[in-house]
Amino acid sequence: MGVALAIGLFAFVVAVLQIMRVTEISPIDEATHIDYVWRIMHGELPHRGDLYTSFTLEEWSCRKQASVYAKLPECGVTDPSQFGVIMENYNAWQPPGLFAVVALMARIGMAITSLDPVTLMRVSCALIVAVGLAMVYALMRMWSLPRGLAAAVTLLLLTNPFTLMVATTVSTDAPFLIFGVLSAIVLTRELSGKSAALLALIAGACAGLVKTITLASLVIVLGVLCLIAVVRLVRGRDRWREPLLTVAAGVFGGGLVTLLWGRYVAAHTPSGWENRVLGQNNTEYVGLPFDEWLPTLTHVFGYTSGSWEGSPVTTYHGQLLTNLAGLALTVAPFCGLIALRGRERLLAGIAAVAPVLVVLLVQVQSWVREEVYFPIVSARYGVTLIPLTALVLGLLLKPLKRRGQVVVWCLCGLVLILVVADSLGVGKVA
């Protein structure tokens, strides 16, 4: 418990350092998220067609956003006509789960500190990520990794750009580690002969309250459990029903919440409403769907593409760490297929094919909903798979003797120094 708390505290401090240095709005939909949280803080939910609140516009005009800098007015302006960007909160359709949690934490922060609301929203996301990292460590220990090795591998996740990105902005991806760990625990319990039905039900319902793609890792795990049940049944083994019960619970939890929220959104969508962002990140088909999907199947590997960091913390060594993290998270599952055995090899196999499955989930969903596809699928859609991939990396390092673990910790120490330097802007790209 003490090690997990120390890991979470370290990550939280690093995130807060970065929050204080980077004030600009992230282009990864942060303005929409700020607006959503602000509305909940004042007792309302946004709906499709709603324009940004004056609070959001003022924060946007003062904090700025590099990608649309020329389209934003001077600080303090709240007149929508002065903004050269889409004025509708295009993420108003998303479920309110995470936004409600962040709103509550921000309200508590406002009562006990003098920090501004947006900073408190970001600090709330940092706390959520810190909890997620502590849970990753706990997952490692469930698979009997030594404390020192489990801590080192967990801390190395700070080199993944999404970890600090979602910890320092108002992001719906903030709980990605939490849901990734819950999915991995569902699989772990089932592989150990224990029922995970209740956990799958809770994880599915909670993930559905955040956003649909948060269910990605759980959906993949449930798919694996279906295959396990079929194999057990064909081979005449016992306990083939238990995985199916867990699958049913997970599907019910996630599916019911998604269905109910979809009905709510449909009921509160104005007649004649048009999607203002359709076509900005996706496009219409020219050939057959799978023809268009083929070039995108590798986009999620490494879990680095599509990330963002503010210019004050964009450093040369930070970019190197990002590339190395992407390489490690890409190679580890395939190495695991060769070096690991039994249940551990199954984990490696899942981690190896899961990035492709995430792409297919995103593309099929876009095809069914709006008959479009994503030419570039951001790795952000698959970040809930990072805990499972990190676990495979830890299992590969598990056989190391004391001397090998010392080497791992020396490398980890060097990396953490560079992570802190990156958050402080040392070596900033000119």
Q: Which structural category do the helix and sheet elements fall into?
A: mainly alpha
Q: Shape from CA axes? A: globular
Order of strands in the sheet with most strands? 1-2
> Based on DSSP secondary structure assignment, what is the total number of beta strands?
2
Distance between the termini: 42 Å
Averaged pLDDT:
94
Q: Beta-strand level of the residues, as a percent range? A: under 5%
Low-confidence parts: none
In sequence order, what are the helices and strands, one letter per element? HHHHHHHHHHHEHHHEHH
Relative helix content: 55-70%
Largest sheet: 2 strands, antiparallel
Which value, in Å, is the CA radius of gyration? 22 Å
Number of helices: 16
What does this structure look like?
This protein has 430 residues and is mainly α. It is 62% helix and 1% strand. The chain is built from 16 helices and two strands. The protein has a two-stranded antiparallel sheet with strand order 1-2. The chain is globular and about 65 Å long. The mean pLDDT is 94.
Topology overview:
Elements: H1 2-21, H2 30-41, H3 54-63, H4 97-112, H5 117-142, H6 147-155, H7 161-167, H8 176-191, H9 197-208, H10 216-234, H11 241-267, E1 283-284, H12 289-293, H13 316-339, H14 342-370, E2 372-373, H15 386-397, H16 402-423
Antiparallel strand pairs: 1-2
Helix pairs in contact: 1-5, 1-6, 2-4, 4-5, 5-6, 5-7, 5-8, 6-15, 6-16, 8-9, 8-10, 9-11, 10-11, 10-14, 13-14, 13-15, 14-15
